[in-house]
Amino acid sequence: MKKTFLLLFITLLMLGCKKSELESVNSSPAVAAYDVEAPPPPKEVQQMAPPKAISEKLLPDEDQSSQSPVAPKKIDTISKKIIKNGNMKIQVGDIKKAQTQVGEILKKNDAYIQNEQFQNTDMDDNLELIIRVPHKNFDALVNSFSDGVGSVLSKNISSNDVTEEYTNVSIKLANKKIYLEKYRDMLKNASTTKDMIEIQETIRELEDEIDIAEGRLRFIDDRVKYSTLKLSLYKEKVRSSSTSKIGFGSRLADSVTEGWNSFVSFLLGIISFWPFLLIIPVIIFLWRKWKAGRTKN
């Protein structure tokens, strides 16, 4: 009887072990998926090697780098601001001819006349020109006047570096614009009338300061872009025998005229003292009367 129970127990134990092994095999999805459904990995994936470092992914390909040049780095700086001015005085033989030559030189150098003034005297003719010329053509213009127009009597050229002033004004202008936007936002959220009035007054002052700064920058840009040259064309008049006042007769007549004018001026000066002339006889009369009374005593 005991042998029968022992044999039955061993049989059941063996059946249970086999069942557990079958369940463990069937319950493994990785093995089943790999053996049944999952295909082997493609050859391209097997042959692809991982990058050595992350920076290698960011490096451009050799073909792309050779085709697309690297963009230059933008430098946030203000270029040099140089204002050039000049003064020239040239003696010429004929004003009209010299004026024609000046017009051709101006046209060649893209310059223009801003102001023109002509004076005709007994001694000379003088044509004053204020010329505006592009900065790059200033030196060529001055050289052209020096070489082909006439004899240069005087020349003065000056350069003024206003880069620092331009930079300071630009920085202050940018800051004022930032503050202006902030005050405009504050105006939208203002809750009282007093705050609105104060903010509007501040905005008005900022707008005026911005207009002044922008005007100053425009003025500097104009003076930098176009240089200014003051040109004087001078022609001394040649005296003829009919118009000359240097001869003896002319000098004698001028001397007589000048002497007569001096005499008239002297006479008029004496007449201007007529109140004092009236006082003198009175003083003389009183002095004689006083002297006569003293003699009697």
Automatic annotation (TrEMBL):
TM helices/strands, residue ranges: 263-287
Statement: the UniProt record of this protein carries the keyword Metal-binding: no
Higher taxonomy: Bacteria, Pseudomonadati, Bacteroidota, Flavobacteriia, Flavobacteriales
UniProt cross-references to Pfam families, sorted A to Z: DUF4349
Protein name as catalogued: DUF4349 domain-containing protein
DUF4349 domain: residues covered: 80-288
rRNA-binding recorded as keyword: no
Record keywords, A-Z: Coiled coil, Membrane, Transmembrane, Transmembrane helix
Organism (species): Chryseobacterium oranimense
Entry superkingdom: Bacteria
Coiled-coil features, chain-numbered ranges: 180-223
